[in-house]
Amino acid sequence: MRHIIIGTGAVGGVIGGLLASAGKDVVLVARGQQLDALRGGGLEVTTAAGTVLVHPPVAAGPQDVDLRPDDVLVLAVKSQDTDAALDAWVDRPVAGGGTAGDRLALVCAQNGVDNERAALRRFATVVAMCVWLPATYLEPGRVSAGGTPVPGVLTIGPVAPSSADAAVLAAYARDLTDAGLRAPVTVDVMAWKYRKLLSNLANAVEALCGTARDDAAAELVSRADDEGRAVLRAAGIAVLDEASHDAARADFRMSRLPGQEHGGGSSWQSLVRGTGSIEADHLNGEIVLLGRLHGVPTPVNAVLQRHARHAAATGATPGSTTAEALLSESNA
Q1: Do residues 178 and 69 both lie within one domain?
Q2: Distance from the CA of 223 to the CA of which of 6, 88, 247, 280 falls in 20 to 30 A?
Q3: How far is it, in rounded angstroms, from Cα 163 to Cα 126?
Q4: Is 90 exceeded by the pLDDT of residue 271?
């Protein structure tokens, strides 16, 4: 099995780097400064177990990769980049005949819950991954993950009953486990991803208000979560129960990594790096969408979505607004 990591940022970099360090066959797909850094000096991955430097093959896109029947495409781009990535890869030829969309498994190693639907429109074999991986990418060529006793818990499973067979899932999970990650396989993986979505509603608060959470920020997070739960109930969407969620994370905690900046999550990192885009439309925006479809008000998530999108577009940095101001607007 060869792992084609489409999007070597924080999550993709840690997964691909650890797979490479475990001797697995990996290709890292990147762009811009990250591509240049990987080609020039390899990828440095720091976890609680230490730092490794790996030099797997690097590609700028599908044109640089001759696809093989044993390839697995790991989609690790942000949700706003999913459609473009899928379109770029789906019709690429595979050795022996056929295309990537017909013959290769695609793993959605992403936040949000809409990527899998987009993938199933194009790919016959789609695996969902619930990513519990506190990964950081702020500097080209370097990524880190401070989770312990493992860097991350990557729960995988089929998006639909026929979207991935047991052999594919078992083989992929074995490689992740060999790389030092925890990779449980479950048939109800989307219930896990919807529970993760609720946690990710706080990403916009952290990005907009900074990592220090005062009472107003805590209230914003709580109200966003309440709206999310109300919407998912109204939509009849299954969500992982809290007992199973807590049990899965019972021994999982964050550790400080020597020489690594302690920052925020993926949305916070998007603003720090000035990427010009942010995932809020696919996180808070998912709750807003479902609320509109099912008649459930979602004022807090709508405010967070709008402000996060504006912050990314204008180059604002974390802490550019206050939780009090956002609460006031959502109460208007």
Answers
A1: yes
A2: 247
A3: 5
A4: yes
Of 132-141, 147-156, 253-262, 317-326, the one with minimum mean pLDDT is 253-262
Average pLDDT over residues 171-191: 96
- Domain range holding 158? 2-187
Mention every residue, 6+ apart, whose C-beta is less than 8 A from residue 1.
24, 25, 70, 71, 72, 171, 172, 175
Residues 177 and 201 in one domain: no
Strands (E), 30-70: 43-47, 50-54, 58-59
**Residue 76 shares a structural domain with residue 213:** no
For residues 9 and 76, state if they share a domain. yes
Q: How far apart are the first and last CA of the chain?
A: 54
Rounding to the nearest 10 degrees, give the CA dihedral for residues 58, 61, 66, 69: 100
CB-CB contact of 138 with 46 (8 Å): no
Are residues 73 and 151 both part of a single domain? yes
What does 114-137 look like in DSSP terms, one character per residue?
Answer: SHHHHHHTT-SEEEEEEEE--EEE
- Reduced to 3 states (helix: H, G, I; strand: E, B; else coil), residue 2 is strand
* Same domain (yes/no): 157, 258: no
What is the reported pTM?
Answer: 0.95
Give, to the nearest 10 degrees, the angle between helix 284-294 and helix 299-314.
140
Tokens of 208: 């907009």
Instruction: Determine whether 53 is exposed, middle or buried from the number of CB atoms within 10 Å of its CB (0-12, 13-18, 19+).
Output: middle
Do 31 and 153 belong to one domain?
yes
Secondary structure (DSSP) of 237-299: -----HHHHHHHTTT-EE-PPTT------HHHHHHHHT-S--GGGGTHHHHHHHHHHHT---H
pLDDT for res 262: 65
What CATH number is attached to the domain comprising 203? 1.10.1040.10
DSSP-derived letter for residue 80 is G
